[in-house]
Amino acid sequence: MPESAVETVGATAPSANGDSDPLGLETRATVLAKEDTLSGKLALRGPGHMLGNFSGQIECDGDLLIGPEAHVEADIKGHRITISGLVRGNVIASNRLKITSTGRLEGDATVGALVVQEGGVHYGVIRVHPEGIPDTPMERMSQVPAQSTVVTLRPMPNAVGRVRKFWGEFF
Length: 171
Description:
Helix content: under 10%
Number of domains: 1
Low-confidence stretches: 1-25, 148-152
Number of helices: 2
Radius of gyration: 22 Å
Mean pLDDT: 76
Strand content: 35-45%
Number of strands: 13
């Protein structure tokens, strides 16, 4: 069986003090290409881009991008997660979860902040914790009851009709 290796790619960028990192280690992202398929437990110690097919579990210390043609069946835990493809599984995003217009999440999500663009789809329960995500293991997160808030909407008076009526008195 041939050996396989995972390589990180990326462009170099200046570090916080203005010096350029000669190896580009600070800005490299782990990439799963469109044609690639991988299964298992993936632990990323920096940013990552999932563009192909993955099944299993993902933990990412940096930003994680699920590409528009990606198909991921995994529980995901990360800092900032952007979903542009299909994800089936539970997601924990300590900072922000963004579902783009082409993104689809089928599973529960626990997030610090949530952004869903028009066209983005989510099937499941979302728990937003702006004060920070509690230290609950991923296995127990689905057992934590969701708190719901009931909001009663009351109809607003028709402002256009009032203006039309007001101006109609003069014309």
